[in-house]
Amino acid sequence: MPAIRTARERAREELTREIKQEARRQLASVGAQQLSLRAVARELGMASSALYRYFAGRDELLTALIIDAYDELGDVADRTLAGAAQDTPRDRWCALWTATRDWARANPHEFALVYGTPVPGYSAPRATVEPAARLPLALLGVVRDAPLRPTPPGPPPRGALPGQLSALAAALAPGLPPHVLARAVSAWVQLVGLIGFELHGHLVGSLDPAGDLFAWTAEQTADALGL
Amino acid sequence: MPAIRTARERAREELTREIKQEARRQLASVGAQQLSLRAVARELGMASSALYRYFAGRDELLTALIIDAYDELGDVADRTLAGAAQDTPRDRWCALWTATRDWARANPHEFALVYGTPVPGYSAPRATVEPAARLPLALLGVVRDAPLRPTPPGPPPRGALPGQLSALAAALAPGLPPHVLARAVSAWVQLVGLIGFELHGHLVGSLDPAGDLFAWTAEQTADALGL
DNA sequence: TCCTTTTCGAGAGCACTGCTCTCGCTTCGA
DNA sequence: TCGAAGCGAGAGCAGTGCTCTCGAAAAGGA
Predict the structure, then answer these.
(1) What is the distance in angstroms measured between the alpha-carbon CA of A68 and the sugar C1' of C4?
(2) Residue A189 at interface with chain B, using a CB cutoff of 8 Å
């Protein structure tokens, strides 16, 4: 019954949204480190102390922004896949890569917030793991649902890795060979790592602009997976 | 003539070193974000304002720490290669990977400082690029000096990438085929990306502990390079 | 309708931060 | 020897996250 709510509840929900919205604006313009509760309150025309009625502190506000960022990236992935339903799996894979990079370049601070250095003493709350998994799940879904060319097995997993891989496969992609799953994880690391390198300037002077390197890496990983 | 210096010069050098040392200690314990000039000064028993005689500000102090961290990582790489001079190139490659991960796990805040989200509005000064290049150069050196098994060429580089790769090859590893150089770059991204994922908790619950995944990735990249 | 309980916003205040400026003291070099 | 330069300390400014209290407003039971 979302219609019959007290005026207080509606106001609270609206203000919570406005606070997040303004915080997001500041995040986009100055980054997470410089995000200031007082500045958010100032911009909203309220006392900074009043903000604590809605968020327990800076960390909780940042957590909300992290979840939003993960969800937005997950939405981008879902939309991309929906728009490429008729394409080959390989094209869907590359489309996901491109969409992720485009989002990251358009929202560098949001990308840094979720895939960069965590804020100190901050450990991701439970609520973040589900939205965080959306992008890797979308990537894995393309691999899972595709007819894969056979690929050479590569180096054998050792130690705890075979168990970890089979547990992961059982939960997410039953039937996927372990070495393919391992390569999918590698691809995910490459996707995020390469975007991070580009955004944080580690490629400046050698491989910047990185668009073509990025496209090559997407194809390289698709090859390795047998897509 | 480093012997004949005024007392002032010697004191300045020593204090500069002590400031960096204390800052490093704080960096290791609380991270870059929480690094406080005032706390450093307090610990050294001096007024915070006096610190500005030695470093123009927090950013400059952080830059000094960044350079130190890159150099320490470079030293680790050099020492590792020196200690593995008799090993096969493949073993040298894997030893570099392991040493890098070990250093990162022992110095997570330093790793985050150099490979994590840059501080806001901060762009790496010229002085950092040379020490920053030491680890990738060491990795590339192993590949350059090794007899490589022929590997399938993989997807062709397009757009600006062939030019970037040949310029890079000309400067660092003449004669290295472009697709091998591209894979070396990919491997570098994977090395740093995987360590970042592990340190920042992105693998918790699925592939953590990540030691065996890491070893597998090292071997996988070695295979791809023909090592 | 009244009255209690809960919710809320504002303000003051605390303990911090980075950074600047000034004021004396010490050291250096001509 | 004496002026200049380097240096440390202190006060101060503007900003931060966060807490506490107080009065007003809304909510809901009697």
Answers:
(1) 40
(2) yes
